Amino acid sequence: MMRSLYSGVAGLKIHQTKMDVIGNNIANVNTVGFKSSSVNFSDTFYQTISPATGPNSTTNTAGTNAKQIGLGGLVASITTNITENGGPTTTNRALDVAINGESFLVVNVNGEQLFTKSGALNVDPSGNLYCTTNNGIVQGWMADDDGNIVKDIATDLKIMTAKQTSAAPTATTAATLLGNIDPNDKQLTPTLDANGNITGGGVPVTFSFYDKLGELYTVKLMITKNPSDPNATTTSSVVPYTARVADVYNSEGESIFVKKTEQADGSVKYSSSGAQISFGNKGAKFGIDTSLNDADSGIVNGVNENTGEFTMKSSTIPLLFNSQSGNFSAVDATVGADGSITANRSNQQYAGNCVNFAIYQGEDAEHVGNDSTFPQYDATNDNGGIEVDFSSLTQFSKGGTSEVTYKRGDKGGKNAGNYAGTMTGISVDEEGKIYGKYSNGETRCLAQICVATFSNPSGLEAEGESLFRASLNSGLFDGIGEEVSKSGSITVGALEMSNVDLASEFTNMITTQRGFQANSRIITTSDTMLEELVNLKR
Questions:
Q1: Residue 225's closest CA among 243, 246, 245?
Q2: 285 pLDDT band (50/70/90 cuts)?
Q3: pTM for the model
Q4: What is the dihedral of CA 80, 84, 85, 86, to 10 degrees?
């Protein structure tokens, strides 16, 4: 039989295989994350009729080449075009991601870690982030309670557990006062008693804070001039003021120092709640002046039983400004005879800028120490409680009107506290970090998507459903993964399209068809020749 028959058959087979690959490419032209493949042919076995010979000097003859007849072709390789990214298509879904680069998402499918370019993600009923095209659970690293990513062995990303769908309240531990204390404001003139103590007057200044349960409280301060301060004449550049606490209100606008008791006849009587506060002075506690009693006026232990009015044991803090520049100088500090300013606090982090404020709800153990809902002050380390920062105040003349506001938290916005919230949405950034958004305005980092890269990505084995498996020729996954920023980035709200090039596929289809046709002609022509051979004998 003629060898050309078998060469034609081999040619038909390999061109049929190439057509199968082209058909699969075209069928997946709109498959998310699909990677096209290409077929490479090679020639196959050869029958050597005579081997090559070298030149012979004795006979003075030249060498001859080997005489070989090929037996057709075979499929040398089917290569997946993984390194070429498909174009991104916009979806505007917060959980759709397109990976720019050669890295792959890692997904857990039936306990096995596989790899995909499909970033169509969603959250299943168990709170797992999964890929909708293959139901694989996305792998990555979880964040700790402070929102810091803990990079360890890649694990299932659970981003909507019961703990994560709610944001626990956090206590405020810092507040910043902002604005201007106008030196011509008439409210700054204090009312003094016979002993020179400030009993009234002042510019009202407030700031609010959250306790550990997320309840909002408001502190009312009064700022006044202090013309009787003996340090006022030591230097012309320092102007002393005082700041004192006038009251503290709960979220219902009621003073925490007074409690109401409904009587049998429906009337209400007021009395001291026993609450105490500290304002600077190393945490020394004070509250209502319970030594005041006046039966005729209805005052018992410093509280008017009928109106709830009371008299505070005021603790004043020195507040100093530079009269020449109008800028803040220091708070809770002492001015020396030479004009030097020495902060009274031992904690250098807050000395001269911050005054510590803390609440002690009564004297019983239920409301103080670690069990208190309020941030507590630690006199040993001179910190804790709420650090009230005065350093952003100024003393410029602005028509005799002071304007002071505040913000919860320090100057950088940290330690502002918050009330309890529930999750309202999830988002992913270009680094693959997943954030939860909550109804209280908080944004918390929940996890980070990890990716895998391979030294030979074309060596990955396709598993269907846009999945690939690591092979010995691709390199193996280390089980940890890496950040996507090391090899590319993530486009959020988009998906990577198939990288199939239809123009190339149709061109390959034409050449494949012609190749198949030509090989079929080998068979028919060989058959004709065999027919002529058979017909020699008639």
A1: 243
A2: confident
A3: 0.69
A4: -70
Decide if 344 contacts 331 (C-beta within 8 A): no
Distance CA 104, CA 86 (A): 13
Q: What is the 3-state secondary structure (H, E, C) of 407-451?
A: EECCCCCCCCCECCEEEEEEEECCCCEEEEEECCCCEEEEEEECE
**Among all chains, which residue has been given the structure tokens 């199968």?**
20
The type of residue at 398 is K
Q: What angle do CA 452, 453, 457 make, to 5 degrees?
A: 125
The CA radius of gyration of the chain, in Å to the nearest whole number, is 41
Element (H, E) at 113: strand 112-116
* Residue 538: other Cβ atoms inside 10 A: 4
Q: Kindly report, residue by residue over 396-443, the tens digit of the pLDDT.
A: 988 899 999 999 999 999 999 999 999 999 999 999 999 999 999 889
Report the distance separating Cα 192 and Cα 198, nearest Å. 5
Structure token digits, residue 297: 């006026």
Pair of tokens at residue 98? 């397109």
What is the helix (H) or strand (E) element at residue 79, kind and residue range?
strand 73-80
What is the per-residue pLDDT across 295-317, written as a single tens digit (0 to 9) for each? Answer: 888 898 889 999 989 888 877 89
Distance set, CA 415 to CA 173, 266, 318, 375, 404 (Å): 5, 43, 25, 11, 21
Higher per-residue confidence, 369 vs 439? 439
Alpha helices per DSSP H over 223-300: none
Which residues are CB-neighbours of 393 under 8 A, at least 6 positions away? 177, 178, 179, 180, 181, 319, 321, 328, 404
Note the pLDDT of residue 366. Answer: 43
Q: In whole angstroms, give the CA distance from residue 282 to residue 484.
A: 50
Residue type, 384: G
Amino acid found at 154: A
Q: Which helix (H) or strand (E) holds 533?
A: helix 502-534
